[in-house]
Design a protein that fits this description.
alpha/beta, nine-stranded mixed sheet, 16 helices, about 40% helix, globular
């Protein structure tokens, strides 16, 4: 879901009084929060997630804590770049990122320790990334396909990662690049299926170049662009996230999302309180608020983020669209970010030179 081309975000994040006023008006604070003396800066991805937080999540927190929350939108690698640029003089208080970039932030010492709170005892074990960061929602990387297009062609629905190599999909497959978490997951999984893995990625590169590459019409990093290609009929199958699939399905498009028989791959949205932090207590309170059953339910209903809080009960029609419940969560494949992240820059260079050229 990310691009490593984050140069615009590498500039320090600054807001003057005028831009703060504009940001506040865009978020739509209630009357009490609009005049609050305290401001909390929360960084997270844009698009539907940003709108969900601004309209469904943030207002209640603002009212409860008499604080104004400014949402700083950007993809996860952009947020990481901001934190790096501001190291030692952080202006962001809470960072919400994909798990890969979050592990990088942890390695760089950009996150402070999480405060103890009862809600953490309710989380699935996979949500406890470290003493400094927690998962706040989980989605799965799998395969999405146009059900109508498959029926018209008389094709059997995909059920395996190996389907990405089937020649019948030549120039009909959409693939995210390695700079996107979905694409990185695919690279690692293909390496595993060819006898390698995170510590031996060569088989994955060979599979992407020689077996999957000929089927790819376009390497698409932006999720919205992938949705557009699906809707236009340019591609009929793509590597997708379960949350993104929910967004497209909500438009009425006949996208089906499947967990390949080898397993869907876990992708967590994670949060941490940034260090140093001008609002440490409010930052911890916001993270705990996002982990509450109420907000976990909102995230699931509105954006397809499966709850990491085990006490959450979802309606069956919502639960069916995501990796919900202990059995599905435990079945997800996990990747080794501690091995991946030190190699990520090298893999990107290699990808650009050998796969996507």
């Amino acid at each position: 879901m990310n691009s490593l081309n984050a140069s615009p975000a590498a500039q320090p994040f600054r807001l003057n009084r005028l831009s703060i006023a504009v940001a506040v008006s865009l978020i739509g604070f209630g009357s009490s929060a609009a005049f609050a003396d305290t401001t909390l800066y929360v960084a997270g991805v844009g698009g539907s997630t940003e709108q969900m937080y601004k309209t469904k999540v943030i207002p209640a927190f603002e009212k409860q804590h008499d604080v104004k929350v400014i949402y700083v939108a950007g993809n996860s690698t952009e947020t990481l770049a901001k934190l790096q640029a501001q190291k030692g003089r952080q202006q962001i208080n809470v960072a919400m990122m994909d798990d890969g970039p979050m592990y990088q932030a942890l390695q760089m010492g950009l996150c402070g320790k999480l405060s103890d709170a009862p809600v953490y005892k309710d989380l699935y074990p996979l949500a406890r990334l470290s003493p400094e960061a927690t998962g706040i929602g989980v989605v799965a990387t799998g395969i999405g396909y146009n059900e109508d297009a498959f029926k018209k062609r008389g094709w059997t629905p995909p059920d395996s990662w190996e389907n990405l190599t089937d020649p019948r999909y030549k120039q009909l497959l959409g693939m995210p690049p390695v700079t996107n978490t979905y694409g990185l997951h695919t690279l690692v999984e293909m390496a595993r299926l060819r006898g390698g893995g995170e510590k031996n990625i060569d088989p994955g590169f060979k599979a992407l170049k020689d077996e999957i590459g000929p089927n790819v019409l376009a390497w698409v990093s932006a999720p919205g662009e992938m949705d557009g290609m699906m809707q236009n009929g340019d591609v009929v199958m793509a590597v997708y996230g379960s949350g993104r699939a929910v967004a497209l399905q909500s438009t009425g498009f006949p996208l089906k999302f499947i967990y390949p028989k080898e397993g869907g791959i876990a992708l967590q949205v994670a949060a941490c309180g940034v260090t140093p932090n001008a609002q440490p207590e409010l930052s911890q309170a916001f993270i705990q608020y996002v982990l509450s059953p109420e907000v976990q339910t909102i995230q699931a209903r509105e954006n397809g983020f499966a709850p990491v809080n085990q006490t959450v009960t979802l309606a069956p029609e919502i639960a069916a669209r995501m990796p919900y419940g202990q059995e599905k969560v435990n079945a997800l494949i996990k990747v080794d970010w501690d091995t991946i992240n030190p190699q990520r820059s090298e893999w990107t260079t290699r990808w650009n030179r050998t796969v996507e050229r």
